[in-house]
């Protein structure tokens, strides 16, 4: 579905006459959208827009290309409509396994968005560490797994992968809150709130902290990101979580989120996977498309942060 997403981006630029206005409609950044357009023009070997002070205008080549993509979008919508009519989408169930780090915001947001369009579809959501999540997938207990840094398995197929950064989380009045990027050594001056032992984020944090050779002051360990956020308020402690592309609930909790220097902590892969050679229900396939789209948005957000 990547090509359809790109088609929708180009169509939005044509309709709005501006990358900036199209980006606002699409809820992406203008710079990321412009990079997508430049990549497409480079691939086609020609410009499809003339850029003017007052906006964007299609070239002759652009008019041909936009006619093509609009036929493709219309045909895709027609086919989808027929599939929905044949298969129903009035009822059904989607079962997913998700990593704990994706359970607080990312997954609920996806499910809410999907059920707004398909209220008859119910969900079974299993929150599990990556090893158990893979077992759920292999035993047909779930249709999809959205997990962090899982081990490779020959029977599991990755639908989408995005590498995300580690964020330090702290109270808005914390002494380090004004720094745009932090080093782990900066954080060691304060008590840390760490993910519980066995969680993927904790394993990677331990590996990154070990070479620093310094004592770590631990304020608490928890497998709940909601508990972590609550403990961070009005304190000098620092917690950690992965950036998942969506707006973090900073206003609600009076917290700020700062990326850790990539030299000290390598980006972590978030993967949406299904069992190889297993056919998905229409509902599960539709939900997987939404997950892939949101993970593409996560990649765009990451590029913008860089």
TrEMBL record:
What region holds the HTH lysR-type domain? 1-59
Reading the lineage from the top rank, the first entry is: Bacteria
One GO cellular component, as annotated: cytosol
Q: Which UniProt keywords apply?
A: DNA-binding, Transcription, Transcription regulation
- Keyword Transcription regulation assigned: yes
Task: Supply the Pfam families for this chain.
Answer: HTH_1, LysR_substrate
GO MF entry, a single one: DNA binding
Return the Gene3D superfamilies for the record. Answer: 3.40.190.290, Winged helix-like DNA-binding domain superfamily/Winged helix DNA-binding domain (1.10.10.10)
Return the similarity comment. Belongs to the LysR transcriptional regulatory family.
Protein's name according to its UniProt entry: LysR family transcriptional regulator
Lineage of the organism: Bacteria, Pseudomonadati, Pseudomonadota, Acidithiobacillia, Acidithiobacillales
């Amino acid at each position: 579905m990547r090509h359809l997403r790109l088609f929708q981006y180009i169509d939005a630029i044509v309709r709005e006459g501006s990358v900036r206005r199209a980006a606002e409609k699409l809820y992406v950044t203008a710079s990321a959208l412009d990079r997508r357009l430049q990549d497409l023009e480079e691939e086609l070997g020609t410009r499809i827009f003339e850029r003017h002070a007052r906006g964007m205008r299609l070239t002759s080549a652009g008019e041909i290309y936009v006619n093509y993509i609009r036929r493709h979008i219309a045909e895709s919508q027609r086919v989808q409509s027929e599939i929905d009519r044949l298969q129903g989408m009035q009822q059904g169930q989607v079962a997913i396994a998700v990593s704990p780090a994706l359970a607080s915001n990312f997954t609920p947001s996806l499910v809410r968005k999907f059920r707004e369009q398909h209220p008859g579809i119910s969900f079974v959501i299993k929150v599990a560490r990556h090893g158990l999540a893979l077992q759920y997938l292999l035993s047909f207990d779930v249709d999809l797994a959205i997990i962090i840094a899982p081990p490779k398995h020959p029977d599991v197929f990755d639908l989408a992968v995005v590498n995300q950064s580690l964020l330090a989380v702290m109270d808005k009045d914390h002494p380090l809150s004004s720094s745009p990027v932090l080093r782990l050594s900066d954080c060691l001056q304060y008590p840390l709130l760490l993910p519980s032992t066995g969680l993927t984020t904790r394993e990677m944090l331990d590996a990154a902290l070990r070479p620093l050779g310094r004592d770590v002051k631990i304020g608490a360990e928890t497998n709940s990101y909601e508990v972590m956020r609550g403990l961070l308020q009005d304190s000098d402690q620092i917690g950690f979580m992965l950036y998942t592309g969506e707006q973090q609930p900073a206003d609600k909790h009076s917290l700020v989120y700062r990326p850790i220097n990539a030299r000290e902590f390598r980006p972590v892969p978030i993967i949406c996977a299904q069992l190889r050679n297993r056919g998905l229900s229409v509902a599960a396939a539709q939900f997987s498309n939404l997950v892939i789209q949101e993970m593409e948005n996560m990649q765009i957000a990451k590029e913008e942060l860089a």
